Amino acid sequence: MKVLRTIETFFPYICGPANQAFQISSRLEAVGVHSPVLTSFCDVDPALPFRETIGNVAVTRLPIQFRLMRYCVTLGFWNQIKDFDILHSHNYRNFQTDSGFFFPRLRKNLSS
Description:
Blueprint: E1 3-6, H1 17-30, E2 37-40, E3 51-54, E4 57-62, E5 66-68, E6 71-73, H2 77-80, E7 86-89, H3 95-111
Parallel strand pairs: 1-2, 1-7, 2-4
Antiparallel strand pairs: 3-4, 5-6
């Protein structure tokens, strides 16, 4: 099973949604459920790696094409949202959560 987790910004050593996403993914990984995090470079150091493993959690950060206030658009998400059983999006009113909701449905409708 694969639980894909999306969040607009991911820095697991702070409190809040990023820490929650990290803790859930880490605990799922510990029991054999693959739970990678798909995020962006929104509000984090651009020197952070594109891909890294933090603890036992695989993290992929995608570049931002443009932003509208805090809405960080990362078009690369659409190529990454695939091959999962469950999609768990953290926060709301962000491109990553919106993509997680709309894009799989759109792709399904286009392939029908």
